[in-house]
Specification:
about 230 residues; alpha/beta; Rossmann fold; six-stranded mixed beta sheet; three-stranded antiparallel beta sheet; 9 strands
Length: about 230
């Protein structure tokens, strides 16, 4: 098992109402799980708990990973003129992890198809290019768990296809467990092995096909009520 949450409650104030309300979740190693739900349902809070950025108010959550790679939704370089190149940024992360092999950043860039941009300033990259570089950074050190927060936000359709294709490939071939907060439901259904659907602080795991049927059924009911 990679992630286990038992009777998990979380509130930013430490008291009710809870953002996560009695959640139970088990994610096995090698799964690709997309976490979906309406805004404010607790998706990003769950990610922060998995990453140990937050502590449960009640209950437990345990992550059994040797190393976690994290790709945040926003980054400090997209609107910054700070003069750091792609290679410099990745190399600083390599040193932070105390990895001695200086070729690791170059190999990581090659894996995501960004070798030609190693000398580019981070602030000059497009949304899709930036996201690929952040994925390359997260993969330094060969994590067994990769966490992403809305990886398609601000990314053009072509880059989205490349990014999701790459994620699916490393999940299938390298058995990296992936947990991704998603607003892109089409990508979630097309690429995940499981969907975790959060509603009002609780959730349930289902197959992509089960979720697609549930989502489409609800949309049809909504359209009928609207008189469409």
């Amino acid at each position: 098992m990679m992630i286990q949450a038992k009777n998990l409650y979380f509130s930013y104030t430490g008291s009710p109402p809870y953002v996560l309300d009695g959640m139970n979740l088990e994610i096995r190693r090698g799964e690709y799980v997309s976490v979906v739900g309406e805004n404010g349902c607790g998706k990003s809070t769950l990610m922060r708990l998995i990453l140990n950025f937050l502590k449960p108010t009640l209950g437990t959550i345990r992550t059994h990973a040797e190393r976690i790679g994290y790709v945040p939704q926003k980054n400090d370089f997209s609107n910054s003129g700070f003069p750091i190149t792609v290679r410099e940024m990745l190399d600083s992360y390599r040193r932070l992890l105390k990895l001695k092999d200086r070729d690791i950043p170059a190999e990581s860039l090659r894996r995501v198809g960004m070798s030609a941009f190693s000398r580019a300033l981070m602030g000059t990259l497009s949304g899709g290019q930036t996201q690929k570089v952040l994925i390359a950074r997260a993969l330094i050190g060969d994590p067994d768990l990769l966490i992403l927060d809305e990886p398609s936000t601000g990314v053009d359709l072509g880059s989205q296809r490349e990014i999701y294709g790459f994620l699916k490939k490393i999940n299938r071939e390298r058995k990296i467990t992936i947990v991704s907060v998603e607003h892109n439901l089409e990508a979630a259904v097309a690429n995940s092995t499981l969907i975790y659907h959060l509603v009002s602080g609780k959730g349930h795991l289902c197959s992509p096909s089960q979720y697609a049927g549930e989502y489409l059924r609800k949309n049809r009911i909504g359209e009928e009520h609207a008189g469409l």
